[in-house]
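From the pipeline queue, job 12 of 40. The input is one protein chain; the requested action is below.

Action: predict structure.
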Amino acid sequence: MSISQPSLDALLQGLKASADPTRLRLLNLCAAGELTQAELTDILGQSQPRVARHLGILCDAGLLDRFRERQHVYYRLARRGPAGSLAGALLGQFPGTDDRLEPDRQRLAALKADRASRASEFMRGMNSQWAATSTPEEEARIRGTILNMLTDCRIGALLDIGTGTGRMLRLLSGRAQEAVGVDLSSDMLAVARSSLEQAGLDHCMVRHGNMYQLPFSAGSFDTVTLDDVLGQAEDPARVIAEAARILRPAGNLLVVDIAAEGSPADGAAVSRYCSGHGLTPFRNRSIKLDHCVLGVLLARRQAAPHSTADQASGANNLLRPD
């Protein structure tokens, strides 16, 4: 969360917006995860119009972020800028236990348990990625190779394109300032969201988006990852072009995929895609597994001089709500 001081007007607006028992309960709930209006209505036990009005007031004050995922609108506690700092400060004053908050927490825990159950059921019915088809020893080698390749790289703001179960977010979350996973599948987003909630990674989030047209401004991220995505893409060069667009100068792109010779994701092909879009490959590893050879390639966008103001502008555009 960014630390910045709100103006007096913003402070007054935020304090007025939060000065209501229901809105304080909403802030407390939205600090624990991303929730839809319907879910918040069920937890609070209040009418839909009343909850919608309170959510609107909190969003107008900047204390909550709002974003759309197909037919649903999700809410979460703001974590950037002056309003995010104020929201965090307000939550820091909440009592650890309170008879008025405990029922909310219990209903939220039940909702998350149901999410986890549905996510597990969905995953049992589909073929998963390398984490489900590799042995534990192979998984450890893959994770170790990825972390080793990135050992001297700043992760900063991380975007995982085609996030699937969110495994790359979980792997790199400890070094990321904030992290976003994007996927076209609402089912996979539900799985990733549940996985991140269970891991307590509240600085990580998932968003619905198309890898060919990502909903972020140019130069928004320090690190972009493509994990088991490029080999399945109809136009892999276009995916790389979009990843290059949203990378900041000196930012890194990590590509992990099955490296069958002649496939869209073999090392030579990925290097060509990168070189054609202003990225310079500088590390490449192959991991031999029982069922395939996995390629891991790291490329960097050329550094360019830019001002502190430019950096701040890029950071402010990173997670701008719809």
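Job complete. The chain has two domains: 8-119, 130-316.
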